[in-house]
Amino acid sequence: MIPFRFLHAADLHLDSRFAGLAQLPHAVRSYLRESTFAALGRLVGVAVEAKVDFVVISGDVYDVSDASLQGQLRFQEALKKLDEHGIKVYLIHGNHDPLDGPRLKTELPEGITVFGTGEPGLAVACRRSDGAEVAVISGISYPTQKVTENTALRYNRKPGSTLFHIALLHGNVDGDSQHETYSPCTRKDLIGRGFDYWALGHIHKRSILHEHPPIVYPGNIQGRSVKETGPKGCYIADVNAEGHVQLEFRELDTVRWQVREIPIDSLADEAEWTAAVEQAVEDIREELPQLMSVVRFRLTGRGNVHRILSEKGAAADLLSELQRREAVRADRQAYAGLVWTEGFSVETGLPVDRGRLRQEDSFLGELLRLSGRSAETEDGLEELLAAALRPLLENRELRRLLAAAGAADKREWLRSAEELGITLLSGTEDAEKAGGREPKEAEAGRQERGSER
Fold it and tell me: What CATH code would you report for 4-253?
């Protein structure tokens, strides 16, 4: 087998709208809107610098089926640059950019292959320099947005060919719950089809599901929310003479999304908490000086700062100030090292002994034990929430929102309910109003009152 090299990318989502961030300052929002195009430019640069023989793109080039004119023109420009360097491109369309979406009717460069629908198309890839055949590439594009059949079962190795076989598939392997179950299949389905490399798309989290043969999700090339954290990019795949594949991940993103945790347990007051957050911002700036960062801070733990966060609105006030400072940097077009705080997730509690409360023979103890048992399994969580939220299901919009919520959202609701119960029922508030007794003293007072009743 002739050694060769290719680039595997997916989920470009060009011209993403960045829904939910409409209130951003114009300069910051414009930079975010440009980030998917910037990542595409980096992809072209990596392909040229690495001297790949071809590029495969496994679906969702565009963010929506009726792709913007700008998105289409920028993608065509990228394809032309790759073609100028003799780099061929093989791509499929996915659920976000199915073939029935309205798009420009333009002539693609000669070296671009877009696979159609129906049975997997076949294309023979050649080395860029000498024209030697090195691989057979197969792919199926989505005809419409929703493809719910297992299209992987349509793929078959080309009879009699000893070339390296690559399959482009946009689908959900092994039922990832965070994404729609379009073109659902299992790893077993893919391994049994005889291909040497499965170039996957659709799941935005980078992962190698299987090594021999490689079954690979490169993730998207640019994160677009706090659900898409960490480095984003593509894989360079080197195939040696024995057909073995060595993968190298290359970062492409210009905006890095992340979630950072700040425990409040050791923070004495509002000033220390503010300083801790400001230091975290500067740490991120120092770690990623060439990128813009968008961060959500998870405030966790137990301490006196909890009351400041829950009652004084300190988180909202600090958020406004942090955003104001970064907006000034953005106005100067100082995007490298910009750290935009997207928000705070307040997951803190009062300084109480949660384990002791759970063991009490009291209403609060029983509440915490029930919550703990329910949270142990998905079925238990669903059963508890179904009973608790039943009155809300009469509202159509609330039904829609509840149906769209994931397991992580539901566990957060349960955690918030526990904290509210502790705040209202543990006696801590009574203690503070009575003169600031320590939590254990407040618990003792509450148990005495309970025995009198």
Answer: 3.60.21.10
